[in-house]
Amino acid sequence: MFEFKIALQFLLCEKRGTVSFLTLISLIGVCIGVAALIIVLSVMNGFTQELQNNLLNTSPHIHILKKDSSTFNASAQILKQLRDIPEIVGVSPSIEEEMILSTNHSSLGVVMKAIDPKTIDQVMDFSKSLEKISPLSQTQPTIKLLNSSQEIPKIIVGSEIARRLRIYDEEKIKLISPFETMGPAGGLPKTKQFEVVGSFRSGVLQVDSQYVFIHLAEGQKLINAPDRIEGLDIRLKDPFALKKFMGKIATFLDSFEIVDWKQKNENLFYAFQLEKIAMFIILSFAILIASFSILSTLFMMVTNKLKNISILQALGARPKQIQKIFTFQGLMIGGCGTVLGLVVGLIICFLIPNLPFLKLPDIYYSRTIPVSINFLSVIFIAMTGILLSYLVTILPSRRASKITPLEGIQFEK
Known about the structure:
- The chain has 413 residues and is an alpha+beta fold.
- It has helices at residues 2-12, 17-58, 76-83, 120-123, 159-165, 205-208, 216-222, 242-249, 261-264, 266-304, 306-314, 319-351, 375-391, 394-401, 405-410; strands spanning 62-66, 88-102, 107-115, 130-131, 154-158, 172-183, 186-200, 211-215, 231-236, 256-260.
- It has two domains: 2-55 and 268-410, no CATH class; 68-254, no CATH class.
- A six-stranded mixed barrel has the order 2-3-8-5-7-6.
- Helix 2 (17-58) packs antiparallel against helix 13 (375-391) and helix 10 runs parallel beside helix 14.
């Protein structure tokens, strides 16, 4: 193409150093902006993906509970109907209530989750998430320790709760229930002592800093309802096929409230999405600033090429063709910078998890920086870089197309 060849000659055959230097600066600026966008968004995607995987592994995918405050009636028929659904991996009864955890030196509001040790591993990776509270502990905590037949029942606390309250193994703590029990002076909050046998580490701060786990029978005693359960936890084969699953259970669970893992963590994922959008907008300004360098470069090139433009017009080049020449120049600078930025950004993304000096502190659940490259985002970033590069070519290319042959020769020395 005639216009493309001329644009390439204008870029490569420039003898004056100013324009060539500005061209290089513009290209590097676009490259840095595109690479920074890819790296930052990939790291944020990595943290979001890691959080999502931890949530899916260490919490139920579906929680079924009564719409009102009445007792949940998990009849044998309902359990059989749920277990017959091929998408369901496991079903486990549970109770969740807000209570106060009290130690000898501090107290904290927690969510007490009473679980069935026989079925809890069917709906979440509970046993795999158990840890010793202290490295000096001699025994590894297991689900079997939550035995309600012992004199002092056992409790497993979230890892962040154990850290904040400085809880140690075999420490005696108390759960204070909002449900009343009758005492000599009237109604009193029900209090029960437990022995700490381990901690639960899910990798999700909201879970590890709020939840404590006890045996289902002990939870029923704390809420003064020996045979009561408040809901059913369900695990699905495909946690993303929620619509298909909801349609199957809606027919016989219309009087129950169904909360899936997306609804339960909606605010958390919304915050992550908002952060990614904000970072994209902020880092797009880096590409925009580099694009303005392309703008100034093209204006200087139009000034330096007045004679060449006049000669082309004298030879029959139309204004539209002159405009295309400088448009192609801006697109070549922006396109090369974008491609180079894509290559640099992707290479750095692949290197980040393997670089020994890029390790996270112990307060993070993962020691390496997680990276997840979304190729649709990469394509969108590339299109953004090229689009901005095109937009800044409009003014200088129009200015070049309006130059007359006489004007170019008149100002040429």
